[in-house]
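Fold it.
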Amino acid sequence: MKKILVVLLSALMLTLGLTSCKKEVVSQGVTKTEVLIGNCAATSGNLANVGGPFIAGLEAYLKYVNDAGGVAGRKIKFVHKDDGFVAEAGLACTQEMINDNKVFSLVGHFGTPTVGATMNLLKETGVPAVYFATGIGQLYDEKATEEEGNYNLFPVQPIYKTEGRIMVARAVGDFKAKKIGIIYTNDDAGKDLLAGAKTQVAALTGITLVEQQVAYGSTDVSAAVTSIKNANVDFIIAASNQVTIATIIKELAAQSVNKDVITTYVNVAPAYASLFINEIQGKFDVYGNGWVAFDATHKAALDLYQSKIDAKYAVNAYAITGWIAAYYFVEGLKRVDKKTLNWDNFRTAMESAPITNPFGGVIDFKNGQRLGTMEMNLSKAALGALNAETNLYAGVWTNVKDLESIESILK
C-alpha cells in the first residue's frame, strides 16, 4: 500500500509540475499597467558631460513612447541613480536596482568601471541588460548561452575589440600605413582596443604594430610618445577613452609628431576635440570612429529625435545614444507584445530578428550573438567657433566616411 501511495503521490506531483510549467508569470518590475527599468550612470564628476545628455536622450525616447500609450498597454517607468563613474558605487547601485527597486531590465548600463564591476552580478541574476555605454571585451560573445552567461546581455555600441580591428583597418586601408603605433591605457578599454588591433594586424601581411602603454588618467605620457616618435611609425592609434586622450594628443603635438591619429568613438564629441584642436594645427589630424549616422538615409530619425529632445541636445551624440538605448529596449517589448512579459520571453523576442538602429547599422542577437555594432564611420576633428576672449577655437567633428565594415575598408 505504501508503494502505491508513493506512486500516486509522484504522479500527482508530476501533474502539478506540468500544470505550473504551462502557466507563465511576469518577472519583477512588471504590472498590468507598467514596466520598471533603470540604470546607474555618471551624471556628476568628470563624465557628467557624457552621462547627463545620455540620460536626457533615454528619457526623451521613453516619454515619446509613453505619450503614445506605451507598449501593449504598459507605460515604461525609468529610475536612475548617479554612480559618479566609480566601480564600487556602480556595483552598489546595480545591486539596489535589481534587489530593492526590482527593475525588470537595466537599460543603458553606463561606463566601463560600472559595467566591468557588475558583469558577474548581471549573469548570476539573469536580469536583462539592454545597451551598454561602453565597449569592454567581456560583453563580446559569438554564441552566448544561459548556462555560460551573456545570454541576458544585449550590447549595441561597438565593442572595443571590434573597434581595435577597425582602427587597424582604417590605418591600412585609408592611410596606407605599414607600421602602426598604438598608445593604450592600462585599463579595460585600452587593453581591449589593443587586443583587437593585434588580432587585425595578425590577419594582415606586412603590417607592424608598435605598442606603448600609459596609465589611465596619467598626466605625463611623454616617455610613451617619445618611443612612438622614435619608432618612426606611419600612423598612430590613441587607444584611450575620455580621461587620458587629450593628454596623449597634446604630448604628440608638443613633441612635433607629424603622423595622423585615430581614437575611439567615445571621444568623438566637441567637448574632447576642444581640448586639443588648437595644439594640433599644422602638425597632424585626429580622426575618430563613429557608429551613429546623420546622412540623408537617417534624416527621418534625426527629425523625430530633434522634435522630442531639449534643443540644447539637438546634435549631442551622447543624448542620441541614450535615445538609441531606449529604442532597442522598446523594440524588444514590442516583440513580446501580448505574451507574458517575463525575462525568458523578452530574451527570446530580442533574438527573434535583427534590429535596425534608426541612426546606423543592424544588430542581430540571434543564436547568442553578442557582437555589438560592426560597422563604423570616420570623422575628423576640426576648428569650430573662435572664442574672442581666449583667442582659441572650439573643436568640432566633421564626417569623412560613412559606415563601413572591415571588409569594405580594406577593399
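The radius of gyration is 23 Å.
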